[in-house]
Amino acid sequence: MIAKRIVWVAAVAAVAALAGCSGSSDPWQEPDATVKILAHDLAAGHPETAWEALPASYREDVQSLLREATERLDGQLWDASFRTLGKLGRVIEEKREFILANPMLQSQKEAIPGLERSLDGMASTLHTIAESDLASFDRLAELDIGEFLATTGVELMAKLRSIPAAEGEESWADSFDKLGRTTVTVLSREDGRAVLRIEVPDEEPREEAWVRVEDRWVPEEIASSWSDNISKMRDAIRGAEATDTEEKRQAAMMQLAVVDGVLDQLLATKTAEEFNSKIGAIFGLLMGAMMNQSSTS
User: Fold this and answer.
1) What tens digit of pLDDT does each residue of 154-182 get?
2) pTM of the entire structure?
3) Are 71 and 137 in contact (CB under 8 A)?
4) Which of 100, 160, 219, 237 could disulfide-link to 172, CB 3.0 to 4.6 Å?
5) CB–CB of 70/237 below 8 Å?
6) Angle formed by the axes of helices 154-162 and 172-179, to 10°?
7) Is 222 exposed, middle or buried (0-12, 13-18, 19+ CB in 10 A)?
8) What are the tens digits of pLDDT across the range 229-287?
9) Shortest CA distance to 192 belongs to which of 219, 224, 225, 217?
């Protein structure tokens, strides 16, 4: 369903459930206009206005969480993780034909067309993420979320739109187009609270309460739990730091090194037979390691 897919996009953008833009001098004055803006801009592939749709205090909350998390991250481990992610994208891109020639896939012919449609988009998306400000610890520390959404966010949305639909499913492009035809009716409004009827083509109409927070309109469900959720996230960040040890850090670096080595081996293969032989050996190695870890935990 379109609603579920849009929620997923909003989670990848961290706060993109409140996006939009408008031609008026203050587009956020009216609750129904805010929702129409949200639908229009997400449909057009512009998640950057999500940031502008949030109340100023909410934006500061999110930026402060990012700053606090960055202060507690291990920069070396962070950078290594994204280098490995980028290398995975290279394997998918450069060894696409070898992947499709895998005997397990060849025995399930019906799965191949869907995989063919998604591999290019997957590789391109991984490349975009691995080259973005997220991939550098130094750049992450200075990250402006609004600017990130206006650059990398727009690029990722465009890639989603370009992914063809799997057989029997709706494409991202069709989903976004439907979202852009959202209609909104104000059912009631009083003292900074409005009840809206929101209708998206091919979806069940829904009623939502929105409330005024500072100079923005926000879903009441989000507003009522915002402070608690921010506190829980801050506690989680601090709790994760408290449980980190040098031993765990070294173990994580070793695991990344193993994965990186595996990807190097796959990149070095010259034939589908060699690629699939490596895949089989690596899979066996990983399964053995997982079983060993399970027995000792």
Assistant:
1) 999 999 888 877 667 788 899 999 999 99
2) 0.78
3) no
4) 160
5) no
6) 120
7) middle
8) 999 999 999 888 666 788 888 889 998 998 899 999 999 999 999 998 888 766 655 55
9) 217
Strand 193-199 and strand 216-219: the pairing is unpaired
- The tokens for 90 are 């290279």
